[in-house]
Amino acid sequence: MTTKKTILLTGATGYIASHTWLVLQEAGFEVVGVDDFSNSSPVVLERLEELSGRKPVFHRLDVGDRAALEEVFRLHRIDAAVHFAAYKAVGESVAKPLEYYRNNLGSLLTLAETMRTHGVKRLVFSSSATVYGRPERLPLVEDAARAATNPYGATKLMCEQILEDLQRADAAWQVACLRYFNPVGAHPSGRIGEDPRGIPNNLMPYVAQVAVGVRPRLQVFGDDYDTPDGTGVRDYIHVMDLAEGHVAALRYLFDKQRSVTVNLGTGRGYSVLEVVKAYERASGRPVPYDIVARRPGDVDACYADPTRARELLGWQATRDLDTMCADSWRWQRMNPQGYAPATSPPA
Ligand code: WQD
């Protein structure tokens, strides 16, 4: 009887981490979650207990707090870590670069130093397609040129470089660098999902709030891009597919004892207007919109070549855009105020 492997999740009550938590447990891993709730709600822990039937093992802390992180490694035998904790709003990063560099770089450095102290050298890093900057060729392959186009993207690129230098210095480190494309959707139960604070920056949560009536209209940021219908094209990936990609990456690290960098995308791009139409089909609600000026920094199109993840991890996305929208809509309809206590009857 082999003992279960224990995985430390940072940013554990966040959108992608909370879905990954469930999938890791279903895959037979033990999970220890840490989060400071700076961009997530403690209610997520109640929902995880409801869905898994187990009380989550959780410690409230800032990953940059070395002493607090040491205590977690003292209390638990950690076999690997999945590092989600980071600030991730592109626009905010332009306005607050110091906070983004301090938090996103500081948390990775503190985590890696603490892991090293305890001889834990298997790490899954939550990276982003944003490290590719403006794509020169599509679909994007992992050895495409990297470039930062905003401070958030720069922190992800720098974290990748920190981890590359660490592996060159100490080959005992096994790192899976996962470049997410556009995560959307929610757990099919509708009990956990994306809960952005304030006005959503990203397309699908904004569309969801228009469909449910929280916001009147969507602003489509430009329809003069070099794409079939002129609106931006992105590679949307269901958060459950993304979560399953993390399980595949951990199994790769434990089984192959070597590092890997992969795109986690579907390989299929959809335009803003295609997403709007799919959401109207899924929700049965109109999503009125206005075409407005381009958003600074946006690229025409961005989508993945997912071949390497399929060949090396044996993983590929299976959920289509209609499923992404249907699962997003169920979460939105059942939780119109996200995790905040409902102030008005559900829609
Ligand atoms: C998608 C498309 C917009 C909102 C960002 C980050 C990236 C990653 C994923 C963290 C674009 C259009 C959007 C709206 C719109 N995050 N849009 N109206 O910009 O591809 O990627 O989120 O890792 O780092 O850059 O995603 O959802 O913001 O935009 O028309 O109200 O929807 O122009 O074409 P993006 P997005």
UniProtKB/TrEMBL annotation:
<keyword id="KW-0119">Carbohydrate metabolism</keyword>
<comment type="similarity">
    <text>Belongs to the NAD(P)-dependent epimerase/dehydratase family.</text>
</comment>
<dbReference type="InterPro" id="IPR005886">
    <property type="entry name" value="UDP_G4E"/>
</dbReference>
<comment type="pathway">
    <text>Carbohydrate metabolism; galactose metabolism.</text>
</comment>
<dbReference type="InterPro" id="IPR036291">
    <property type="entry name" value="NAD(P)-bd_dom_sf"/>
</dbReference>
<feature type="domain" description="NAD(P)-binding">
    <location>
        <begin position="8"/>
        <end position="327"/>
    </location>
</feature>
<keyword id="KW-0413">Isomerase</keyword>
<keyword id="KW-0520">NAD</keyword>
<dbReference type="InterPro" id="IPR016040">
    <property type="entry name" value="NAD(P)-bd_dom"/>
</dbReference>
<dbReference type="Pfam" id="PF16363">
    <property type="entry name" value="GDP_Man_Dehyd"/>
</dbReference>
<dbReference type="GO" id="GO:0003978">
    <property type="term" value="F:UDP-glucose 4-epimerase activity"/>
</dbReference>
<protein>
    <recommendedName>
        <fullName>UDP-glucose 4-epimerase</fullName>
        <ecNumber>5.1.3.2</ecNumber>
    </recommendedName>
</protein>
<comment type="subunit">
    <text>Homodimer.</text>
</comment>
